[in-house]
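Field log, afternoon session.

UNIT: design team B
ACTIVITY: writing a sequence onto a fixed backbone
BACKBONE:
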């Protein structure tokens, strides 16, 4: 934060979104940026939960929760079975795709319950020495 309690990168982004241009401080000229899109995301369990209201008003805000186990199974099976359809019939008949998806989701659940849910000092949780 600077002496006016603003972050320069956020101010630059807000200026571009609000006015359609930014200023080059070295050349003292206006830079017009065309055909740009911004997509942002926030981790609901870690980090800062405060958004500058002047910045947030420039975005459409959606809160989307993490899908449940059944929805994840359906999503991943749809993609994987679509790809496996191009392979040999033995793979489809053995329901290999469904087993792979179930194993992957079980592994994800195990990892999600094992690791800490905070971003603070995350590098201490997993490193080469473990």
């Amino acid at each position: 934060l600077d002496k006016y309690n603003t972050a320069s990168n956020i101010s630059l982004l807000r200026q571009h979104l609000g006015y359609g241009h930014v200023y080059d401080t070295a050349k003292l000229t206006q830079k017009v940026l065309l055909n740009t899109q911004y997509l942002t995301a926030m981790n609901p369990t870690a980090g800062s939960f405060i958004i500058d209201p002047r910045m947030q008003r420039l975005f459409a805000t959606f809160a989307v929760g993490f899908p449940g186990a059944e929805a994840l199974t359906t999503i991943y099976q749809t993609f994987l079975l679509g790809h496996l359809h191009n392979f040999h019939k033995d793979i489809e008949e053995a329901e290999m795709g469904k087993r792979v998806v179930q194993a992957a989701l079980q592994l994800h659940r195990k990892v999600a319950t094992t690791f800490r849910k905070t971003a603070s000092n995350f590098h201490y949780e997993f490193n080469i020495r473990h």
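LOG NOTE: The radius of gyration is 23 Å.
NEXT ACTIVITY: expression trials, pending approval
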